[in-house]
């Protein structure tokens, strides 16, 4: 909530406190990476956080997807696609990775594949939202 509200200092303190918690360390590093991006920090700082998140919990698709988005922004579409594919290997219906793949394929000029991924992302997000309400 603090991160969404732009209270970066407070959010960072909480995430850094969770880094020492074995179970939550991976997600704390992932959230620190997102914080770095929202803060407008050097993308390298966000990348380092996402890589630490992967090291802490290699089964979480989120930091791979975030690395994919970061690589897309840097213009490295091959690396972006690779990271998103890793996320989708872990969770074939992970909406952010599906969305990122759609954006990557749009950038590559492959509109049909882009639309396919974006539709899958939308459907996956709807399913997840429905399941959360239950």
Describe the structure.
By secondary structure, the chain is mostly helical. It folds into two domains: 57 residues, Serine Threonine Protein Phosphatase 5, Tetratricopeptide repeat, CATH 1.25.40; 76 residues, Tetratricopeptide repeat domain (Serine Threonine Protein Phosphatase 5, Tetratricopeptide repeat, Alpha Horseshoe), CATH 1.25.40. 78% of the residues lie in helices and 0% in strands. The protein contains seven helices and no strands. Helix 2 packs antiparallel against helix 3. The longest helix is centred in the C-terminal third of the chain and has 23 residues. The mean pLDDT is 93.
Residues in β-strands, percent: under 5%
Order of helices and strands: HHHHHHH
How many strands, what sense, and barrel or not for the largest sheet?
none
The secondary structure category is: mainly alpha
Which architecture name of the largest domain does CATH use?
Alpha Horseshoe
Determine the fraction of residues in helical runs and give it as a percent range: over 70%
Low-confidence stretches: none
The averaged pLDDT comes out at: 93
- What CATH calls the topology of the largest domain is Serine Threonine Protein Phosphatase 5, Tetratricopeptide repeat
Total separate domains = 2
Task: Sum up the overall morphology in one term.
Answer: globular
Number of helices: 7
For the secondary structure, the number of strands is 0
**Rounded Rg:** 15 Å
Distance separating the two termini: 22 Å
Overall CATH class of the largest domain: Mainly Alpha
Quick one: CATH superfamily of the largest domain?
A: Tetratricopeptide repeat domain
């Amino acid at each position: 909530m603090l991160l969404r509200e732009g209270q970066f200092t407070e959010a960072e303190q909480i995430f850094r406190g969770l880094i020492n918690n074995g179970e939550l360390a991976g997600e704390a590093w992932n959230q620190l990476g997102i914080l770095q991006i929202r803060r407008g920090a050097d993308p390298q700082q966000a990348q380092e956080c996402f890589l630490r998140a992967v090291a802490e919990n290699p089964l979480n698709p989120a930091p791979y997807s975030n690395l994919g988005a970061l690589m897309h922004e840097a213009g490295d579409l091959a690396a972006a696609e690779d990271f998103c594919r890793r996320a989708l290997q872990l969770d074939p219906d992970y909406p952010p990775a599906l969305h990122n793949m759609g954006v990557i394929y749009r950038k590559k000029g492959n509109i049909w594949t882009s639309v396919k991924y974006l539709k899958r992302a939308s459907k996956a997000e709807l399913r997840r939202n429905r399941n959360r309400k239950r």
